Amino acid sequence: MLQKLKAMLEASHSSARLSELKPEPSVAVCAVLLEVASADNDFAVEERHAIAELIGAHFDLNSDEAEALMDQAQKERTVSPDLWPFTHTISQHFLPEEKAQVMEMVWRVVFADGRLDAHEEMLVRKLQSMLGVNHSLVMDAKQRAREFAATIDLS
Q1: How many domains would you assign to the chain?
Q2: Helix intervals (H) in 20-133
Q3: CA 28 to chain centre
Q4: On the CB side of 63, how many CA atoms lie within 13 Å of its CA?
Q5: Could you give the CA distance from residue 128 to residue 154 in angstroms, rounded to a whole number?
Q6: Which CATH number characterizes residue 67's domain?
Q7: 154 versus 35: which is more confidently predicted?
Q8: pLDDT tens for each residue of 46-71
Q9: What gap in Å lies between CA 70 and CA 49, rounded to an integer?
Q10: How far apart are the two ends of the chain, measured CA to CA in Å?
Protein backbone atom coordinates (compact mmCIF):
# COMPACT_ATOMS: atom_id res chain seq x y z
CA MET A 1 0.00 0.00 0.00
CA LEU A 2 2.80 2.40 0.90
CA GLN A 3 4.60 1.58 -2.36
CA LYS A 4 1.43 2.36 -4.36
CA LEU A 5 1.04 5.71 -2.63
CA LYS A 6 4.70 6.53 -3.24
CA ALA A 7 4.38 5.60 -6.94
CA MET A 8 1.26 7.75 -7.30
CA LEU A 9 2.99 10.74 -5.70
CA GLU A 10 6.03 10.33 -7.95
CA ALA A 11 3.79 10.06 -11.03
CA SER A 12 1.88 13.16 -9.94
CA HIS A 13 5.11 15.08 -9.37
CA SER A 14 6.43 13.95 -12.76
CA SER A 15 3.29 15.09 -14.60
CA ALA A 16 3.39 18.42 -12.80
CA ARG A 17 6.90 18.97 -14.22
CA LEU A 18 5.64 18.06 -17.71
CA SER A 19 2.77 20.52 -17.48
CA GLU A 20 5.29 23.23 -16.54
CA LEU A 21 7.24 22.77 -19.79
CA LYS A 22 7.29 26.21 -21.36
CA PRO A 23 9.77 26.12 -24.23
CA GLU A 24 11.31 29.20 -25.75
CA PRO A 25 9.68 30.08 -29.09
CA SER A 26 12.78 29.05 -31.07
CA VAL A 27 12.87 25.70 -29.26
CA ALA A 28 9.15 25.25 -29.90
CA VAL A 29 9.53 25.81 -33.65
CA CYS A 30 12.52 23.52 -33.83
CA ALA A 31 10.72 20.79 -31.84
CA VAL A 32 7.78 20.94 -34.25
CA LEU A 33 10.13 20.63 -37.24
CA LEU A 34 11.92 17.68 -35.62
CA GLU A 35 8.56 16.02 -34.99
CA VAL A 36 7.58 16.47 -38.63
CA ALA A 37 10.89 15.02 -39.81
CA SER A 38 10.28 11.98 -37.61
CA ALA A 39 6.63 11.50 -38.56
CA ASP A 40 7.38 8.93 -41.28
CA ASN A 41 9.80 7.00 -39.02
CA ASP A 42 12.63 7.93 -41.38
CA PHE A 43 14.52 11.01 -40.22
CA ALA A 44 16.50 11.57 -43.41
CA VAL A 45 19.77 13.49 -43.46
CA GLU A 46 18.16 15.92 -45.95
CA GLU A 47 15.48 16.70 -43.38
CA ARG A 48 18.09 17.36 -40.69
CA HIS A 49 19.97 19.71 -43.02
CA ALA A 50 16.73 21.46 -43.95
CA ILE A 51 15.85 22.01 -40.28
CA ALA A 52 19.31 23.39 -39.50
CA GLU A 53 19.12 25.78 -42.45
CA LEU A 54 15.55 26.86 -41.74
CA ILE A 55 16.03 27.60 -38.06
CA GLY A 56 19.39 29.18 -38.76
CA ALA A 57 17.87 31.58 -41.26
CA HIS A 58 14.68 32.22 -39.29
CA PHE A 59 16.38 32.88 -35.94
CA ASP A 60 19.64 34.31 -37.34
CA LEU A 61 21.85 31.50 -35.99
CA ASN A 62 25.18 30.18 -37.21
CA SER A 63 25.52 26.44 -37.82
CA ASP A 64 26.80 25.67 -34.31
CA GLU A 65 23.96 27.62 -32.72
CA ALA A 66 21.45 25.87 -34.97
CA GLU A 67 22.83 22.48 -33.92
CA ALA A 68 22.65 23.48 -30.24
CA LEU A 69 19.05 24.59 -30.71
CA MET A 70 18.22 21.27 -32.37
CA ASP A 71 19.82 19.41 -29.44
CA GLN A 72 17.83 21.47 -26.92
CA ALA A 73 14.58 20.96 -28.84
CA GLN A 74 15.21 17.22 -29.02
CA LYS A 75 15.75 17.09 -25.24
CA GLU A 76 12.51 18.95 -24.63
CA ARG A 77 10.66 16.68 -27.07
CA THR A 78 11.74 13.64 -25.06
CA VAL A 79 10.17 14.96 -21.84
CA SER A 80 6.97 16.19 -23.45
CA PRO A 81 4.12 13.73 -23.88
CA ASP A 82 2.88 15.54 -27.00
CA LEU A 83 3.23 18.65 -29.16
CA TRP A 84 0.94 20.86 -27.09
CA PRO A 85 3.63 22.77 -25.15
CA PHE A 86 5.37 23.61 -28.42
CA THR A 87 2.31 24.58 -30.44
CA HIS A 88 0.92 26.51 -27.48
CA THR A 89 4.15 28.52 -27.25
CA ILE A 90 4.03 29.26 -30.98
CA SER A 91 0.36 30.26 -30.74
CA GLN A 92 1.08 32.58 -27.82
CA HIS A 93 4.16 34.28 -29.27
CA PHE A 94 3.65 34.39 -33.02
CA LEU A 95 1.42 36.58 -35.17
CA PRO A 96 -0.76 34.88 -37.82
CA GLU A 97 1.73 35.62 -40.61
CA GLU A 98 4.57 34.20 -38.49
CA LYS A 99 2.54 31.03 -37.91
CA ALA A 100 2.11 30.79 -41.69
CA GLN A 101 5.92 31.04 -41.99
CA VAL A 102 6.24 28.17 -39.51
CA MET A 103 3.85 26.13 -41.63
CA GLU A 104 5.98 26.83 -44.71
CA MET A 105 9.04 25.61 -42.79
CA VAL A 106 7.05 22.50 -41.86
CA TRP A 107 6.27 21.84 -45.53
CA ARG A 108 9.91 22.42 -46.51
CA VAL A 109 10.96 19.75 -44.03
CA VAL A 110 8.28 17.40 -45.38
CA PHE A 111 9.54 17.84 -48.95
CA ALA A 112 13.26 17.85 -48.04
CA ASP A 113 13.64 14.11 -48.65
CA GLY A 114 11.66 14.23 -51.90
CA ARG A 115 8.71 12.25 -50.48
CA LEU A 116 5.34 13.15 -49.00
CA ASP A 117 4.32 10.47 -46.52
CA ALA A 118 0.71 10.10 -45.32
CA HIS A 119 1.87 10.39 -41.69
CA GLU A 120 3.62 13.65 -42.46
CA GLU A 121 0.56 15.05 -44.19
CA MET A 122 -1.67 14.02 -41.28
CA LEU A 123 0.69 15.73 -38.83
CA VAL A 124 0.68 18.91 -40.94
CA ARG A 125 -3.13 18.98 -40.75
CA LYS A 126 -2.95 18.50 -36.99
CA LEU A 127 -0.42 21.34 -36.70
CA GLN A 128 -2.60 23.59 -38.84
CA SER A 129 -5.44 23.04 -36.41
CA MET A 130 -3.31 23.38 -33.28
CA LEU A 131 -1.77 26.64 -34.51
CA GLY A 132 -5.03 28.00 -35.87
CA VAL A 133 -3.63 28.70 -39.32
CA ASN A 134 -6.08 29.30 -42.16
CA HIS A 135 -6.27 26.38 -44.60
CA SER A 136 -5.62 28.55 -47.66
CA LEU A 137 -2.43 29.92 -46.05
CA VAL A 138 -1.27 26.38 -45.38
CA MET A 139 -1.95 25.39 -48.98
CA ASP A 140 -0.06 28.47 -50.23
CA ALA A 141 2.84 27.51 -47.94
CA LYS A 142 2.72 23.95 -49.28
CA GLN A 143 2.91 25.19 -52.86
CA ARG A 144 5.88 27.48 -52.12
CA ALA A 145 7.68 24.67 -50.32
CA ARG A 146 6.98 22.25 -53.17
CA GLU A 147 8.35 24.76 -55.69
CA PHE A 148 11.42 25.29 -53.51
CA ALA A 149 11.97 21.53 -53.22
CA ALA A 150 11.80 21.21 -57.00
CA THR A 151 14.88 23.43 -57.27
CA ILE A 152 16.96 21.18 -55.02
CA ASP A 153 18.98 18.30 -56.44
CA LEU A 154 18.60 15.30 -54.10
CA SER A 155 21.00 13.06 -55.99
Answers
A1: 1
A2: 25-38, 45-59, 63-79, 84-93, 96-111, 118-131
A3: 7
A4: 3
A5: 27
A6: 1.10.3680.10
A7: 35
A8: 999 999 999 999 999 999 999 999 99
A9: 11
A10: 61
